[in-house]
């Protein structure tokens, strides 16, 4: 497991770390293990603006990594900070700078998409109404806005998460398998949004998937193996 050295600052096994000047998220000495195996051991990295890809086969830790960076899952050791705000010291302030939704969650099923977007507005100070409107139109969500989320198809629910993610304005936006269950037109729209995200000067997007999104320039790649 590593960050490609020509793309992002890399840490040796000794834990020595050279911060990237424009880094948004800093990870220092992250350790995480499941009972059956260790996924991350003394792992450190810097996440810069743009789009970072997390590659890996089934069971290699893609979703686990996103959950760790979101503060949704606690590591066994290590320190995470976003724009200087440390997760351990200021957990609420750290998480307010992150957009993360587990795509398979049922947590919001009784909400409508409009209510879910309201929740994100209250959480993220930089929520962008213009981007939301662009996403609702581009992902063909208008007919679904007044339905409760449990009534939507898997693909439509994922579109709601994606619309909120891009509109959130979050410093760190974590996307797990963003193209799963999407129709062809929606895939094209998400690719366009990711291309815009790749040039964003103050937001870092991390995309976990089996392959790189076509045509999207990457700030870095994390390869967790096959």
Question: Mind sketching the topology for me?
Answer:
Layout (H helix, E strand, L loop, with lengths): L1 E2 L21 E10 L2 E11 L2 E6 L6 H9 L6 E6 L2 E2 L4 H5 L2 E2 L13 H11 L5 H10 L15 H14 L4 E5 L7 H15 L5 E6 L10 E4 L3
Helix pairs in contact: 4-5
What does this structure look like?
The chain has 226 residues and is of the alpha/beta class. The protein has a single domain, classed as Rossmann fold (3-Layer(aba) Sandwich), CATH 3.40.50.300. It is 28% helix and 24% strand. The protein is built from six helices and ten strands, in the order E-E-E-E-H-E-E-H-E-H-H-H-E-H-E-E. The strands form two sheets. It has a six-stranded mixed sheet. A four-stranded antiparallel sheet has the order 3-2-5-6. The protein is globular. The termini are close together.
Helix content: 25-40%
Discrete helix count: 6
Strand content: 15-25%
Average pLDDT, rounded to a whole number, is 91
Task: Spell the H/E element sequence.
Answer: EEEEHEEHEHHHEHEE
Rg, rounded, reads 17 Å
Q: What's the CATH topology name?
A: Rossmann fold
Whole-number total of structural domains: 1
Secondary structure tally: strands: 10
Stretches where pLDDT is under 50 for at least 5 consecutive residues are: 1-21
Strands of the widest sheet, in order across it, are: 1-10-4-9-8-7
The CATH superfamily label reads P-loop containing nucleotide triphosphate hydrolases
Q: What general outline do the C-alpha atoms trace?
A: globular
> Helices and strands: which structural class?
alpha/beta
The main β sheet shows up as: 6 strands, mixed
Please give the alpha-carbon distance between the first and last residues. Answer: 11 Å
Corresponding CATH architecture? 3-Layer(aba) Sandwich
**Quick one: CATH class?**
Alpha Beta
């Amino acid at each position: 497991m590593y960050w490609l050295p020509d793309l992002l600052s890399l840490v040796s096994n000794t834990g020595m770390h050279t911060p990237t000047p424009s880094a948004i998220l800093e990870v220092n000495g992250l350790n995480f293990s499941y009972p059956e195996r260790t996924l991350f051991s003394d792992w450190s990295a810097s996440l810069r603006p743009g789009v970072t890809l997390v590659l890996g086969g089934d069971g290699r830790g893609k979703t686990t990594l996103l959950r760790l960076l979101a503060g949704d899952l606690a590591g066994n050791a290590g320190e995470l900070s976003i724009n200087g705000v440390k997760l351990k010291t200021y957990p609420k302030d750290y998480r307010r700078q992150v957009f993360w939704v587990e795509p398979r969650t049922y947590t919001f099923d009784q909400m409508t998409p409009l209510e879910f977007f309201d929740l994100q507005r209250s959480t993220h100070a930089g929520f962008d109404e213009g981007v939301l409107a662009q996403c609702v139109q581009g992902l063909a969500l208008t007919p679904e806005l007044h339905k409760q989320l449990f009534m939507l198809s898997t693909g439509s629910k994922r579109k709601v998460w994606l619309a909120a993610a891009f509109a959130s304005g979050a410093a760190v936006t974590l996307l797990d398998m963003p193209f799963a269950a999407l129709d062809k037109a929606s895939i094209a729209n998400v690719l366009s949004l990711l291309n815009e995200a790749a040039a964003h000067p103050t937001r870092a997007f991390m995309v976990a998937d089996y392959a790189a999104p076509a045509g999207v320039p990457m700030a870095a790649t994390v390869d967790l193996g096959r």
